Amino acid sequence: MDREQLSLIAHREHPIKSPLGDDSVQRLLERSLSPGTRRVLDLGCGTGEWLLRALTTRADVLADGVDISPGALAQAARAAEARGVRDRLRLHQSKAEDFAGAEPFDVVLSVGAAHAFGGLLPTLAAARRHLAPGGRVLVSDGFWQHPPSNEAVEMLGEFDDLATTVDKVVADGWTPIDGHVSTRQELDDYEWSTCGTLATWALEHPDDPDSATVLTTANQRRAEWLHTYRDTFGFLSLVLRRAD
Predict the structure, then answer these.
(1) In this structure, is residue 205 part of a structural domain?
(2) Which GO terms describe its molecular function (predicted)?
């Protein structure tokens, strides 16, 4: 079973695919979708949950989602059809950095996908290429709440602390107009959900040739979280506008 299939299983009960609760997602969307918002883009949309919630919240919005995963995009299309918003959602199978929209977007989202661009600032550079004047960006990335172990850095990558992360975003020409630091509850809920959903799938499919591998993956991920990065990793979401 490849990483895409594992991810689709792991996030069945947590479709946002980031350590954010429903209330936090709704508030961040409300701050991102200004009254004049018409076009929304998600770079690295996965199964499209952010766009689906935006479309069901605002009947006047059109949305585009970009992702490399055909399975995730197919799931997004089915979900959009079920929610009655398929006619306002365009999906593009492409690397996010290669996508070229015909018009600028009022809001650009990229939540939990900074690794695909090589970090937070490259993600913002990509978002800026698609952003209309006066538009807003909703972006997220990890940070270190406490000094990490070498093992944690090797596992998750290089991050700064919270203050340094925000300082770098501001120095890059962006102005935060809202933000959210995921709570301990949100972080724990996400990890319990994804590991537990993988384990449940494996236990309910004992005859599947991938069952043992999926269960091993669930146990390994849970152990890595509890022993390596639970007490150090944080998750930051920012709503931004350009200072110029």
Answers:
(1) no
(2) methyltransferase activity
